Amino acid sequence: MKIKYMALILIIAALFIAAPASAGTKYLSGDPIITVAISGTNEFSPGDEVTIPIVIQNSGLKEMKITSSDIVDRDDNPDTAKMVTVDLLKNDAPVTVKSDPQMIGDIAAGSSTTVNFIVKIDKNAPAGEYDLLADISYQYLNYAEQFGTDSIRYYYKTVELDQELPITIKPMVVLEVSNVTTDSLNVGTEGYITMNVKNVGSESGKNAVIKLETVDGSPVIPTDASVYESVFEPGEEKTVVFKASVSDDGEAKNYPVQVVVEYTDYEGETVSSDAVTVGVDVGGKVDFEVVSEPSVLSPGEKGKITIQYENSGATTVYNAQARISAVDPFTSNDDTAYLGDIAPGEVVTAIYEVTVDDEATLKTYAIDTEIRYRDALDNSQISDSMKAQVVIEKRSGMDILTNPIVLTLVVFIIVGIGYFVWSRKKKNNE
């Protein structure tokens, strides 16, 4: 048994002696060569927020290596960029870099990686060529010191590298809006919106059309919403007036609208500027109230109904006419009254002649009345329906004397008596 074990040990030892020693490799030269470039377009417009992909490439080469049985293999190659970090700086460009520095890791020779940076181009950025700056930091194996045949010490070198990345900012019309005012813009009516629009960009917009556009959810609806300018030069300011209406479900408050210009650019293409959102003040709804006391009539009477209307809205109305709807027990051949122009807070009076049916029930009635008018842009409008109260009650004895019919009969009787007396006196004198 001992002889067998001794034979096995001798065979194994012989194999180790006969096998060639494993060779190690080391590289004597070849550092990382790092370059950066923007992938895709590098042309941007003022106001853009873009994602810029940046390619980091290591084009280092292994120039010389040694292979020997007494060399311990290195864990890293000298042409590998280790722990690469990239930061994008604005440099002299009119931009804001929104992304933080990015840690990439290792980039071996002959390989590359791509990182994305979010960049906001200033909305008033002048057109031209600019350079962003890529700040790159990495380490590489600069030297390895071997001790004997089983240990090694590494020496790494840190590299800080800046490389410029050219970008182009294209010329563009950029709008700046100021002095926004409104005139007669009220809920349910049409009015004017006036504003100053300035081209603060670097493009001369040809065949420019300045437009007013609605915003989702806003009751302000443009109706005459474009102004043409043959050329809109950089630095030029225009005063423009638009027409807009406000839907009936609006309120008296400030609402957003958008302003945009469509134009022909330097390449002959039709483009649009970025929209600018501004607020416009909307006045309250045109409204009226009946403020008069109820008129009093009696069954069978032909009389007058007096109704006073107050303009409780926020704007003047023009050429107003009031109307009543005479229904049973009322009839009328005079159901319309001219009121003229009515300013906010003003009270006007309308008088209508009606006849009350003989069988009218004694109670208080509500007669429908409305006002038709024209707004500041001469659009015909109709107010909401209102109620005017009329009391039907039985006249007292004294009231009979104030009845127009009774008074007419009395006049005729008096005139007849006077004529009779005059005739008798004249006959007696003959």
Automatic annotation (TrEMBL):
Keyword annotations from UniProtKB, A to Z: Membrane, Transmembrane, Transmembrane helix
Keyword Transmembrane: yes
Annotated TM spans: 404-422
Annotated InterPro entries: Ig-like_fold (IPR013783)
Name of the molecule in the record: S-layer-like domain-containing protein
Source organism (scientific name): Methanolacinia petrolearia (strain DSM 11571 / OCM 486 / SEBR 4847)
